[in-house]
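user: can you give me the structure for this one chain? tokens are fine.
assistant: on it. calling the predictor now.
[tool input]
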Amino acid sequence: MIKIARINIIFSLLVFFVLSASVSADTIGPELPYRLVYASHNLTVDTEVQNLLDVMRRAQAAGYNGIVLADWHLQTLDKASEKYLKNVAVVKKAAIQLHLQLFPMVSAVNQAHGILFHDPNLAEGMPVRNAPFIVRKGQADLLADQAVHLRGGDFEQSQGNKVAGWENRDKPGQITAIDRSIKHGGLQSLRVNVAGKNAAKTVYDLLSQSVDVSPYRQYHLSAWIKTENLDAPDKIRHTVLSSSGQSLALSEWEVKKNQEWVQYHTIFNSQNSRKIRLDFGITAGKDGKVWIDDVTFEEVGLLNVLRRTGCPLTVKGEDGYLYREGKDYDVVRDEKLNINGTFLPYHQPPAFKILPGSKIREGQVLKVSYYHAVTVGKGKLSACLSDEKVHTLIKKDIEDIEQKMKPAGIFLSYSDIRVAGWCESCRARNLSPGRMLADHVARSIRTVHTVNPQLKILAWSDMFDPFQNAVDHYYLVNGPLADSWEGLSPDTVIVNWNQTPRYTDSLRWFADKKLSQIATVCVEAPSYAARKRAEGLKNIPNLVGYLYMTTGNHYEELEHVALQFRGR
């Protein structure tokens, strides 16, 4: 890992040195205003606090002058325990003693754990429209109006090593094989024989199948997975694509080097699709085995249902008659929507109970419309861009951080917002997601200025970058993200972590907007991306610093990076 990281960093440093050609010699190195280290330590855990203090001491000794604190619990200081506040005070005191500036992250609309800890219903919701429910014995249950049929999900039917019902894509009999000795259920499972040529991760395309669905419904995909001696364990690649090729499901199934049978779940919305395609694959190294069994696919109802003004729930009869919550049927609420700041992607949906004296009759079919939360990636949830309560919580967060930490600045964490613009609060504004995001970041910036005009403002680049995420239909964003950058103020310092081959264009684009930028040195960045950045980067003005970035708490190269920057 260290050797690979060092190669990546050398390329990233080359980029920085080329960029630095436009900065006067006396501002290069230790005199750069921002020499920052990213830290995602959980301050609720004492050992994590000690690890952070060790990083801070090393950072100060190496010449860094600031720490970016990315603990989502900082967004819940109004509900924090005495222990947590004590740990915050310890970090603050250490920063003062080490002459390190603190930049806590707020406005985390993307990984909105802090916001949703206060109210999980503030998640952005996707619509389910007129799902049929049938009343039986005082309860209404989902009645799928179109048979969902996944063929061969149990892998019990096969011809040789080809499984029935699926398109077998990757060398049946070599890469994939039927296994009758190891299985989760039934008589056999599908085994994947990982056989990469080297330790670098290889992508295997395994299975594919088309399935009929209904538009704007909620679906549940699951599978049981076992592994053995995976050389480079990563994740099971499963995608759900619409007939037009748009991705509908964005979760990841991470697997371990060795694990017994574990069930994985993905929940998604079909949007306007009537047919989808399921693709299964795996990313792994040069050795090991993976078993897949008992893949299921079903329609579900009221799972992770959201209840707020912008996410109404309506229940109608087939004749269009609107029934009343609390009179005809009991209040519908998913009590498992959020448990201590954690969303469970799949669990038992809430009961839909018919009240005594209701106008709803036994055997009646109801049309139920609602909005539900959707997780992406590793359980990430986005907050609504239009609900006023989100702004209220962000304002309280900034005030609490200013009072308890006295930071040098605020880091606005607008990054990877992958679900936006669906709920009625958003749609009623008649704005594109990009314009809604521009308004949102502008309000957060005004809040920082109001709380303390001396606070510096930093922001991730990607959601404001037309060469990265500020594009049309980014993941599950309902429309274009163009113009999101219109909400940035002239004093916003952009922390540019574009990891694509368009990195040069990104830097120049922000520079043309007269915005100061911090270059990101990401130790986990692929070396090919770093090489692309090094091509043709010259004369980028307003480059004011660098950020040692690690998504996995890899600080092996902390001193090495600082040494390379010093005196350049």
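assistant: here you go. Residues 1-5, 15-30, 527-537 have pLDDT under 50 and may be disordered. Residues 433-451 form the longest helix (19 residues).
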